[in-house]
Amino acid sequence: MILYTLMPQELIFQTTSAEYAKQQLVYYDGIPLLVRETEAKEYEIVRNLSTNPQHFLQSKYSPGMRILPTTITS
Amino acid sequence: MNKERYIASEQEEQQEETKKENVAEMIQQLGQTNVPQMTPDSNIHCLTIVGQIEGHIQLPPQNKTTKYEHVIPQIVAIEQNSNIEGLLVLLNTVGGDVEAGLAIAEMLASLSKPTVSVVLGGGHSIGVPIAVSCDYSFIVETATMTIHPIRLTGLVIGVPQTFEYLDKMQERVVRFVTKHSNISEEKFKELMFSKGNLTRDIGTNVVGLDAVKYGLIDEVGGVSQAMKKLRELIEVNKREEGKMLQ
């Protein structure tokens, strides 16, 4: 099927709300992180949203690292 | 070499042990395990504008986006924090929501601290106002910026837009760019409406050196030039503040 339209793809093929719930923003040690919940009920860091370049030098805040939901401060 | 590594790993183990002790101590003293350990504040912060600039409609998670509800509070925090003296903005964006993009651009333009932007890869569409909103802008030689008219997808405020409405919206972008860069309105509009550069579309894809030639961007350069410029601007800013105190 070819769709000839100006409409953005996400408007035509809408994603389910469950897809959106997979990722969320949490603060860990005061650093905003975009995380994804894994099967083991841990949070896996998807993106570090901090503007402080120092936060990118520490491996514990880098993408792919797991953090426990219980350690989330806010 | 191996011995050094062994020593390093041993030290790490020791650190690991003290960490565990610390955790136990924290539970005893504060009733919780983690106390925010703030890393020393850097005096230059870095804001990355990547992927799509997301506006009023949330894009599915597989899209890489820059959300304005994340960026705007960060800019406010940077303005508020007295330890932060300057901001480096790194752009590699395909563009996105016009109003969200303009919101970020206006926030950056009204920031009292020195700002320097670097366009890497691409600063297309609504990325153009963001790039020029900073006090000084750089573009790497290989980066490109696509200048094109506002697209008509009818997604602006949820009702069908009139041509005049879109024209006014475009005027906002043109005015912002011409106000914050050295490009003239005529030249910017000429690039915006030129034919034959993009496949089945009007507009121009401006490459590094050309962006500087047209006056859109201040200089060709990468991270070292940008940091040098930012430090210069911070010095100037400090001197001016000192004068005001006297």
Automatic annotation (TrEMBL), chain A:
Pfam families per the UniProt record, alphabetical: YlzJ
Name of the molecule in the record: Uncharacterized protein
From TrEMBL, chain B:
This protein's UniProt keywords: Hydrolase, Protease
Pfam families in the cross-refs: CLP_protease (PF00574)
Keyword Protease: yes
Single GO molecular function: peptidase activity
Any single biological process term in GO: proteolysis
The keyword Transmembrane helix is annotated on this UniProt entry: no
Highest taxon listed in the record's lineage: Bacteria
Record InterPro entries: ClpP/crotonase-like_dom_sf (IPR029045), ClpP/TepA (IPR023562)
The protein, known as: ATP-dependent protease ClpP protease subunit
